[in-house]
Amino acid sequence: MDGELRKMPKLLILYYSRTGNTKKMAKAVAEGAKTIPNVDVKLKYYATPGELAEADAIILGTPTYHHDTTLDMKNLLEEAAVREINLKDKIGATFGSYGWSGEAPDLLLEIMKNRFKMKIIQPSLRIRYTPDEKGLEEC
Ligand SMILES: Cc1cc2nc3c(=O)[nH]c(=O)nc-3n(C[C@H](O)[C@H](O)[C@H](O)COP(=O)(O)O)c2cc1C
Predict the structure, then answer these.
(1) Is residue 50 within 8 Å of residue 77, measured between CB atoms?
(2) pLDDT tens digits, residue range 14-39?
(3) Which residue has its alpha carbon closest to ligand 1 atom 17?
(4) Residue 55 φ/ψ, nearest 5 degrees
(5) Cα of 95 to ligand 1 centre, how many Å?
(6) How far is CA 106 from CA 35, 54, 63, 131, 136, in A?
């Protein structure tokens, strides 16, 4: 039993949200993920580079502010890079709420792919402002 538990794939959903829109998406993504049997789903607002290393799949949620992702996300990935945290071949995906340009999720996908050699899932899931019922379903 213990051995089986340890083998359960771990999915980390990490998000940042200032006004709650990306948070709504994150909760819906986590809800959806939890319907998949035998996956250990963690939804977090903050994570350490070590927690990234422990996950088998990482989904990052980021709103776009000033054509960019957030400082928290950048700092986390920068720290992981400096500490040479190995994320190679882990599965990576991103999502986020945006207003008009929405670059942030794709920016993170690019870092996951090029800097960390992760296996990314494209395209990212982006929703303008507050997700409606249809948007949450998509999440
Ligand atoms: C100061 C400020 C700057 C923003 N800059 C951008 C931007 O460059 N591109 C964009 O698509 N949306 C931009 N937005 C819109 C936000 O991405 C949008 O409000 C989003 O829903 C915020 O997500 P959150 O509720 O998860 O924080 C900006 C919003 C504010 C308040």
Answers:
(1) no
(2) 999 999 999 999 999 999 999 999 99
(3) 98
(4) -80, 150
(5) 14
(6) 26, 23, 11, 18, 19
pTM above 0.85, yes or no: yes
Q: Is 97 in the pocket of ligand 1 (CB under 6 A)?
A: yes
How far apart CA 43 and CA 122 sit, in angstroms, is 21
Determine the atom of ligand 1 nearest the C-alpha atom of 101.
11
Q: 65-119 pLDDT, tens per residue?
A: 999 999 999 999 999 999 999 999 999 999 999 999 999 999 999 999 999 999 9
Q: Kindly state the tokens that stand for 54.
A: 């422990």
Q: Which residue has the least CA distance to atom 12 on ligand 1? A: 99
CB 42 within 8 A of CB 13: yes
> Strand (E) positions, the chain?
10-15, 40-44, 57-61, 91-98, 119-120, 125-128
Distance 101 CA to ligand 1 centre (A): 9
- Torsion of the alpha carbons at 116, 58, 121 and 119, rounded to the nearest 10: 40
Helices (H), 45-129: 49-54, 71-82, 104-114
